[in-house]
Design brief:
The chain is of the alpha+beta class. It contains 8 helices and 12 strands.
Length: 255
């Protein structure tokens, strides 16, 4: 097995491979399409020239690894991952050498997927399209909803572009729950769902997820969402709409 870089000569091979594995290689597809100048990809191929795995390096900050055990071991030697966040299949986390996991928090994630016709429509609550005027209020709700994970989110870093849309539910003219979607041709993602702790268990997240799925299916043939495996209420919310767990990851986030 050998490692090659993704470039103009190897890109056709890359696309043939990932287009059959969209649920697994989502970030490889979306990052390369939307931010090619910030995306680096290494490919592990066997003696027959068949792809056995890949490593994605996005912004020199985030690593995604997929493939056979042998491929994963070889791919991790291509990049110094000490200072980066790393996502690997949970069953392969022990293939990472210990120094790559030092000073990082391990977060178990489920990737949940839904296809057209599988979604249960449940959006009885009225939600609004949010825009840049809501930037600081959204950032504040990020921090309040999960200070551990989102405690450093700032309004200036939020994206409001055609492929990144926001929906929110308001009470007394204040945003108490929101969802963000990321639209792609092959797949869409619900990238964030957050609800003010004072307004949880009222069906807000369920309604926003339902609306988000309906919007994404106008553009993409499938959509997915990531959720912490130990966040049982969130997992149950997504299942209620029709999502099913496809992959389990270990996400190593810098402390």
């Amino acid at each position: 097995m050998k490692i090659i870089h993704l470039d103009s000569t190897t890109e056709p091979m890359f696309w043939r491979y990932v287009e059959k594995r969209i649920e697994e290689y989502f970030f490889f597809i979306m990052d390369l399409k939307q931010y090619p100048e910030l995306t680096k990809i290494w490919i592990a191929i066997d003696n027959d020239g068949e792809i056995q795995g890949m490593l994605l390096n996005y912004k020199d900050k985030n690593i995604q690894i997929r493939g056979s055990n042998e491929a994963v071991k070889l791919l991790t030697n291509q990049v110094d991952m000490i200072s980066m966040d790393i996502t690997v299949l949970r069953i392969q986390k022990d293939l990472l050498i210990p120094k790559y996991k030092e000073n990082k928090e391990e977060i178990p994630l489920n990737r949940m997927v839904i296809h057209p016709g599988e979604n249960v429509i449940n959006n009885e609550l009225i939600s609004d399209v949010l825009d840049e005027s809501d930037r600081e209020e959204i950032a504040s709700l990020f921090r309040k909803a999960d200070p551990h994970f989102w405690g450093e989110v700032q309004g200036k870093n939020l994206e409001f572009i055609e492929t990144h849309r926001w929906f929110g539910i308001k009470r007394e003219n204040k945003i108490v729950s929101f969802a963000q979607i990321w639209i792609g041709d092959e797949v869409g993602i619900i990238s964030t769902v957050a609800t003010d702790p004072d307004f949880q268990r009222l069906g807000f997240a369920t309604s926003l997820v339902s609306r988000s799925v309906q919007e994404l299916f106008k553009h993409s043939p499938l959509c997915l969402i990531h959720v912490r495996a130990d966040n049982i209420p969130a997992v149950n919310t997504y299942k209620k709409i029709g999502f099913k767990s496809y992959f389990q990851f270990s996400y190593y986030k810098k402390i």
